[in-house]
Each structure stands twice: as structure tokens, then as C-alpha cells.
Design a protein that fits this description.
There is one protein chain. This protein is mainly α. It has one domain. 85% of the residues lie in helices and 0% in strands. The chain has helices at residues 2-50, 58-74, 80-106, 110-135, 143-162, 166-192, 199-225. Helix 1 crosses helix 7 (199-225), helix 4 (110-135) packs parallel to helix 6 and helix 5 runs antiparallel to helix 6 (166-192).
Length: 227
């Protein structure tokens, strides 16, 4: 009887070790790819600013974003998925460049606003990610709330744009700040607990969270600092 128990304990320990190694691999690959995509996005944003490119507009931005997001999801299990995610993040960088240029050009303290938004975004991401990893808490219960909240904020944002409602637009930015913070917790928890095993999709979720958090903070800080 004892050998059976020993074999069972050994098998259980081995399975747990393999699971931990697999989770750590996904987490490591996610952060490596996230760092690379953030750098690439920063380069395309810088190129867009240097070339003084105009913003492509809402329609082209949404079509490009959702189209490239679809392709990334479709090819997430192949090397083509890497190409698609760099195309997606590079495109988002191109759309971000004109936004940053506008803040630098039209706000007297634009540089301070941009750097403050950047600093808060970085600190928020690091803090929330570290908490999710260290605590090991299960944040999967947030999935449904985040889906509804993000979809609702997106629709309200479109209404604010089409009907020129700056107060609603500011409120939407506040909603996105909260939602993106929750999404960072949720996605990191999913990776740590083995709920997300595809590092390409995990990277996309975290990148979009950081992008939206940064642009939302830019909007809020820009309004607060607009003299």
C-alpha cells in the first residue's frame, strides 16, 4: 500500500511542478513579448510624431484595430501571430503619435501632462501586476463585470464623440481608467492561475490595457491642466 501512496504523491508533485513551470513560461513569454511590443509601439509613435503624420481618424482607427486584433486572434497559435501582434501594436503606436503631438503643441504644460500620464501608467501596471502575482488571488470573477463595463464605456465614448459631449467623454475616460486597472488584475491572475495559456493573447490584453490607461489618463490630466 505504501508504494502506491508514494507513487501517487510523486505523480501529484510532478504534475504540480509541470503546471508551475508551464505557468511561469507563459508569464515570462508574455512579459518579454509585451516589452518588445511596447518598444515597437513607442518607435512607431515617435516616427509618427517626427513625420508630423495626421491622426487617421476614428473609422480607420477602429477598422485597423479590430481587423488586426481579429488576425492576431486567428493566428495566435502560430508564428504568424507574432507578426500580427507587432502589426497591431505598431498601428496603435502610429495612432498615438498624433495624440501626443497635440498635447505637446496645444497645452502649455503638455510635456508635464504626457510624462505624468506615462509615470502613473507604468506605476499602476507594475503595482497591479505585482499584487496579482504575489497574492495569487483569483480575479476571474471580474470577467463578466469587465466585459460589460468596457463595452458600455466604449459605446458611451462613441456617443460622446458623435454628439460632442466633453463632460461625458471625461467620464468615459474615468471609466476606462478603472476598467483597465481591473483588466490588468484579471489577465495577470489568469496567467498565474493557468486560465490563460496563450502568451500572444495575454500580451494583447495587457498591451491594450496599458494603451487605454495611458490615453485615458492623458485626457483626464489634460483637462485638469488646461489653462
Amino acid at each position: 500500500m505504501e508504494p502506491v501512496r508514494t507513487r501517487y504523491a510523486t505523480a501529484t508533485a510532478t504534475a504540480a511542478t509541470e503546471s508551475a513551470l508551464s505557468t511561469n513560461k507563459v508569464l515570462r513569454n508574455t512579459y518579454m513579448l509585451l516589452a518588445a511590443t511596447l518598444l515597437f509601439s513607442a518607435l512607431t509613435a515617435g516616427a509618427s510624431m517626427a513625420l508630423n503624420l495626421p491622426h487617421p481618424g476614428l473609422v480607420i482607427t477602429l477598422v485597423g484595430y479590430f481587423g488586426l486584433l481579429f488576425l492576431t486572434s486567428k493566428f495566435r497559435n502560430s508564428a504568424m501571430g507574432i507578426v500580427c501582434i507587432f502589426a497591431l501594436t505598431g498601428f496603435m503606436g502610429l495612432t498615438l503619435g498624433p495624440i501626443i503631438s497635440a498635447y505637446l503643441q496645444f497645452l502649455p504644460n503638455g510635456g508635464q501632462v504626457v510624462m505624468t500620464a506615462f509615470g502613473i501608467t507604468g506605476a499602476t501596471f507594475v503595482g497591479l501586476s505585482a499584487y496579482a502575482i504575489k497574492s495569487g488571488r483569483d480575479f476571474s470573477f471580474m470577467g463578466g463585470f469587465l466585459t460589460i463595463g468596457i463595452l458600455g464605456a466604449f459605446l458611451l465614448g462613441l456617443i460622446a464623440i458623435f454628439f460632442n459631449m466633453p463632460t461625458l467623454s471625461l467620464a468615459v475616460s474615468g471609466m476606462f481608467v478603472l476598467a483597465m486597472g481591473g483588466l490588468i488584475l484579471f489577465q495577470t491572475s489568469e496567467i498565474v492561475r493557468g486560465g490563460e495559456t496563450n502568451y500572444i493573447m495575454a500580451t494583447v490584453t495587457l498591451f491594450v490595457s496599458i494603451y487605454n490607461l495611458f490615453t485615458s489618463l492623458l485626457h483626464i490630466l489634460g483637462v485638469m491642466g488646461d489653462e
